[in-house]
Each structure stands twice: as C-alpha cells, then as structure tokens.
Design goal:
There is one protein chain. With about 210 residues, the chain is an alpha+beta fold. The protein has 7 helices and 10 strands. The strands form 2 sheets. Strands 7-6-5-4-8-3-9-10 form an 8-stranded antiparallel β-sheet. It has a two-stranded antiparallel ribbon with strand order 1-2. A hairpin with a 5-residue loop joins strand 1 and strand 2. The radius of gyration is 16 Å and the shape is globular. InterPro entries: Peptidase_C39.
Length: about 210
C-alpha cells in the first residue's frame, strides 16, 4: 500500500473533508470513520454535489469535546496566521482550491510550515506533501466553493473563557446557535484589531460570518 492509500483509506471523490477531520481527530486520540461522520459534515451544494463544509467539520470536532473554530485570515497576513496556529500547537485543517480543478474546493491537514514551504497531509496525494509559499497562497484564493484564506482551528478544550465572556455576541442572530470563541488564544483582542490576523469567524450552526472588532 502506498503512502497515499495509507492516508486516504481508499478515498472517494469529494471525501477530502471527512478524511482530513478523521486524521485531525486522531491527533487527539479520537477514532472516527469517514463513513460515520460523512452525513454530519457534508451537504448538497448549488451545483448538485455532496461535499464537506468547513463549519460542519468544526461543529463535529466540538461534539468530540474539542475547541474548534472556522476563521478567515486577513489576506496580507495569511501565512503568518497559519504559522501562529502551528506554533501554538493548534491542529489546522485548510480549505483551499483543488489543485487540478480550480473551481472546486479541497481540504488538507497542516503538517508543518516554515517561511518558505507548507507541508500538508493530503487525502488524495498522501502525507507530507510540500508546497512552496507562493503556490499555496495562490491556491488559497477564493473560488465558487471557497471563501478564500479559511482554516479550521482545532485544539484541546480550555477552561479559559475570558475572551468568550468578553464578547457581546453569545448566540448567532441568524440561527440562535451558541457562539463559543475558542480556541480562545485565537480570539485575543490583539489579533482582531485593524492590523490583526483575522478578518472574520463563522457560526458553526449556520455558517453566518462575524467579526468581533
């Protein structure tokens, strides 16, 4: 069995999101199968395709008692945002354009990053795929399926709810789902100012977007 098959578990088309989440959960000692989580993390899109959604991936991670958020980076600081998550030991699932189908979205799991190269575990191409900085940032531009510069941050739960408690928004005004600003270190006010890392975050109940600025 080659490295791609070992990671992908015989991946089927459009299964990159569930596979990336299964691999992310394993980092926390949580075992789930792609088949088991598929109904919870996928929806039909306007183009007639069943595929994963970032907010549903994060929502399922939270049902596993993990902290999770979907965040959109400021484009000019997108690379730094990934580095900060990696340095903080936060597990990151990246949502970007597909390599050979630029109108489609794709999910990969961050493995490593430095100033010049990002390394991802790709559900279709295997573990430790290296992409140079310029090429990845081009892939991270928006298309018809992705908002651009979006990542899913997953971490161990914390009892520090200072940032969450300080926000006026406690439930989503669209769907009334509770909004938990976790992992809390990513919601520190210093990273949401005009020169900060993040542009907005997304409700895990309905995918509505907000900025706490």
């Amino acid at each position: 069995m080659n490295s791609a098959a070992a990671f992908t578990e015989n991946a089927q088309p459009r299964s990159c999101g569930p596979i990336s989440l299964v691999a992310a959960l394993r980092r926390f000692g949580i075992e789930r199968s792609v088949d088991a989580i598929w109904p919870a993390v996928t929806r039909d899109d306007p183009f007639g395709t069943r595929a994963a959604r970032s907010y549903l991936i994060a929502a399922l991670a939270r049902t596993c008692q993990l902290d999770a958020a979907v965040l959109q980076c400021q484009p000019e600081r997108a690379w730094q945002a990934i580095q900060i998550c990696h340095d903080a030991d936060i597990t990151v699932v990246l949502n970007h354009r597909a390599y050979r189908a630029p109108d489609e979205g794709h999910f990969t799991l961050l493995a490593a990053i430095d100033d010049a190269t990002i390394t991802v575990d790709d559900p279709f191409l295997g573990k430790n795929k290296q992409i140079d900085r310029q090429s990845f940032l081009k892939l991270w531009q928006p298309n018809r399926e992705t908002a651009g510069h979006v990542l899913i941050a997953i971490g161990n739960p914390t009892t520090d709810r200072t940032a969450e408690a300080s926000e006026d928004i406690t439930t989503c005004p669209r769907c009334a789902a509770p909004i938990a600003l976790t992992p809390s270190r990513l919601f520190d006010p210093s990273v949401w100012n005009s020169d900060g890392l993040w542009r907005r975050f997304f409700c895990l109940g309905c995918d509505a977007s907000f900025s706490p600025r």
